[in-house]
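quick one: adenosine-5'-triphosphate bound model?
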Amino acid sequence: MEKEQYKPRPIEKAIANQEPVKTERVETKFNEVFLVDLEDGGRVIFKPFDGEDFELKEYVQYKRERAAYLFDTIFNWGLVPPTVIREINGRIGSAQVFVEDARHTDGENEKLGSVFEKDVSRLDAFDFLIGNDDRNPGNYLIKEGRLVAIDNGLTFQAATEDEYPKYERAIVENGEFLKKLLVDKRGIEIFLNLLAELIPQTEIDRFKKRLAMVAATLNLEFSI
Ligand SMILES: Nc1ncnc2c1ncn2[C@@H]1O[C@H](COP(=O)(O)OP(=O)(O)OP(=O)(O)O)[C@@H](O)[C@H]1O
Ligand SMILES: [Mg+2]
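yep, here:
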C-alpha cells in the first residue's frame, strides 16, 4: 500500500520559500537565533544548526523543532507556530512563524494566572507526549490569553514517561481530545513516517510507549 502523505499547509510553503530580506540577531543564552524578514512581509525565527549550543549538538535541535510542529498540526493542538526546515544565508535550520505581539510571563511571579487554565493543562499533555520536561517560562509565550509553545528543540528526549504521575491529571482532563488523537490511525501513521526522518528510532519507540500509556489511562484499546 502507498504510504499516507503529509500535505504541508500553505503557510509552510510560504515560510519555506520566501527570500529573506533582513536578518537580525535575537539575544539568547546559548543558541544563535535570528529574526528574519521575508520578502512577502512575513517574519520567522530562524535557528541554524551550526549555531546550536555545541554541548547539545547531538540533539540536532532544528529537526526536533519541526517534529514538535508536525505533532501539533497533524493533531490540531494549536500550540506551536508553523515551523519548517530551510536554508537561510547558506545555513540549514528551523524557521518558525514569528508570533507578533506575544509576550513572555514575568516568570515566577506571574505564573500562568492570566492564561486559560485549559490551555495550561493542554500544554502539559502535549509536553508529556513529545517528551519535553523543559517548558520553563522562556519557552512559551502568551498572546491574547492563549499559550504559544516555542523553543521545542529539546523535545523527544526527556523521559517524561518515567514521571507519568506528574502528567496524569492533564491526560485525564484532555481525555476527549486525546481519544480522538489515539483513534486517528491515519494521522499517527503519517506522523510516524515523518518522525523517522527527524529523530532516532529509540525516541520514536518511546513516543509510542507514551501513546500506549495515555491509552491505558483512558481505557482505550490501542496498538501500533
Ligand atoms: N515563534 C516565535 N514568535 C515570537 N517570538 C519568538 C518565537 N520563537 C522565539 N521567540 C523569541 O526569541 C527568543 C529566543 O528563542 P528560543 O527560546 O527559541 O531560543 P533558545 O534556543 O532558547 O536560545 P537560548 O536557549 O540560547 O537562550 C524567545 O525567548 C522569544 O522571545
Ligand atoms: Mg528559549
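Residues 201-217 form the longest helix (17 residues).
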